Amino acid sequence: MEGPVTPPVVSLDQLRLRDAQFVECAITNRETGNPLMAEEVYDFEFSYALNSLHDLERRFVGIELRLSLDGLDEEKNSVGVHGHFWLRFTFEVLNLEELLVHDGETTTIPPALYLTLLGIAYSTARGLVMAKTASTVLQGVTLPIVDVRELVAGAKSNELPSEVSE
Fold first, then answer.
1. How many angstroms separate the Cα of 159 from the Cα of each of 101, 116, 117?
2. d(CA 101, CA 8)
3. What are the C-alpha distances in Å from 27 to residues 76, 95, 127, 132, 154?
4. What's the 3-state SS for the chain?
5. Where are the domains of the chain?
6. How many whole angstroms separate alpha carbon 152 and alpha carbon 155?
7. Rounded to an integer, what distance in angstroms lies between the CA atom of residue 8 and that of residue 11?
8. Rounded to whole angstroms, how far apart are CA atoms 88 and 59?
């Protein structure tokens, strides 16, 4: 009798961040009359969507994050300031073939790998967005610190974990 299958262990030394880029970036200040200054934006409403990409032959796994920030005043009303950031991260997973889960015709990238890559991508996105918003009406904005499991659970467009075709 076979024992339970142990999930593969994701080893960080097998991961390479090959690319991190803004696909789209827009910061708008729709206030008519006198444009708002950064210090006049009291808080932000944050929303996001996730997507995954794969190229198994090249051992690449991609994570896309679409992040939106809407500026709010002290009463939590929109002030017309908006930031939209679409980022794409490409990782090379040196031991990807070892990590793939094969079940008949279906091949799946394990959730542990996605969560690890998503954590790296999101943390990197926090710094990239902070740098991109410097000297804008969004200056000083930081994306919230989140548990990646909650990020996946609350995603608008969630394809994680993903089935892949070989």
1. 16, 15, 14
2. 9
3. 19, 39, 16, 10, 24
4. CCCCCCCCCCCHHHEEEEEEEEEEEEEEECCCCCCCCHHHCCEEEEEEEEEEEEECCCCEEEEEEEEEEEEECCCCCEEEEEEEEEEEEEEEECCHHHHCEEECCEEECCHHHHHHHHHHHHHHHHHHHHHHHCCCCCCCCCCCCCCHHHHHHCCCCCCCCCEECC
5. 15-164
6. 5
7. 9
8. 16
Handedness of CA 9, 3, 98, 50 (dihedral sign): negative
Q: How many other C-beta atoms lie within 10 A of the C-beta of residue 155? A: 18
Q: Which two tokens stand for residue 63?
A: 């994570």
Tokens of 86: 């679409």
Measured between alpha carbons, how far is 41 from 22 in angstroms, rounded to an integer?
A: 24
15-164 fold = Bacterial Protein-export protein SecB (3.10.420)
Write the pLDDT tens digit of every residue in 50-105: 999 999 899 999 999 999 999 888 899 888 889 999 999 999 999 999 998 888 88
pTM, rounded to two decimals = 0.83
